[in-house]
Amino acid sequence: MREETLASESSAPASRPGRCEVQPAQAVSRPGEVASRRSPVVSEGLDNLGADGAPARLGIMGGTFDPIHIGHLACAEQVREAYGLDAVVFIPAGSPVFKRDRDVTPADDRLAMCRLATESNPAFDVSAMEIKRGGDTYTVDTLRELRAHYPDNVELVFITGADAVAKIFRWHESEAVAGLARFVAVTRPGYTLNDEMRATFEKSPFTVDFLEVTGLSVSSSDLRRRVSEGKSIRYLTMSRVRDYVCEHGLYRKER
Ligand SMILES: Nc1ncnc2c1ncn2[C@@H]1O[C@H](COP(=O)(O)OP(=O)(O)OP(=O)(O)O)[C@@H](O)[C@H]1O
Ligand SMILES: O=C(O)c1ccc[n+]([C@@H]2O[C@H](COP(=O)([O-])O)[C@@H](O)[C@H]2O)c1
């Protein structure tokens, strides 16, 4: 289910000797293969979803993933289970529009960490489509691309946390977004999903279900802060992501 490696990944920082064990992004293609192979739209593993005409459900986990952590992974898995999703695709935003007020780690690193974090789950995959598109990342463009690619028997289910869903009316072309997917908003410690919000969504063009998931009070900001303070992030993300952060010297300075 792995996608081809972005050309720019080859410029990722070289591994350094030391106590970190490097887990580089995997290069799937061999020299000469790339030119003859069509670039996937979503990912190699998921491009043919629904091609047999059978109903299928694709979960879409969008995020900045700077870095990906257990909160993202557990909520994607619990939505997959609750909604009988055939797969969940993690789509790291190339240039997240609501995070313009801070430096975001290069997309290739965030993509590589998503791949490392998801590789042990056969129902999880990662797409570089938002990174490849370039420019500001808008979900409306991603959902239009997905809708144009997949046949009608593939249902799109966009997964958001309680914090992200609260801002959905401010998303670019939000009315169009509403018509392109069903949304599942998951609970997140410190954020509210209540009846008032439910009523607001019911009066809107959005279809939003609420799902209670295991409360994990973990955030990418907290992981970044912990690394910058020299503290451990063990168990807050997959060990291969922790190794990548260490080996590539990410988050050492607080931003
Ligand atoms: N602990 C969590 N529980 C449930 N949902 C989460 C959790 N962490 C993130 N999410 C959801 O995952 C999606 C992507 O989140 P994002 O990559 O911005 O992570 P973050 O931890 O919120 O990052 P940051 O702390 O940098 O703002 C969003 O929809 C967000 O609401
Ligand atoms: O399309 C938009 O205008 C838009 C604005 C803010 C966030 N989003 C999407 O919402 C998802 C969660 O975003 P974030 O900033 O919490 O990582 C991610 O897929 C973003 O691309 C989308």
UniProtKB/TrEMBL annotation:
All residue ranges annotated as the Cytidyltransferase-like domain in the record: 60-226
Keyword ATP-binding among UniProt keywords: yes
Transmembrane stretches, start-end: none
Any Pfam family hit: CTP_transf_like
Family: Belongs to the NadD family.
Described function: Catalyzes the reversible adenylation of nicotinate mononucleotide (NaMN) to nicotinic acid adenine dinucleotide (NaAD).
Official protein name in the record: Probable nicotinate-nucleotide adenylyltransferase
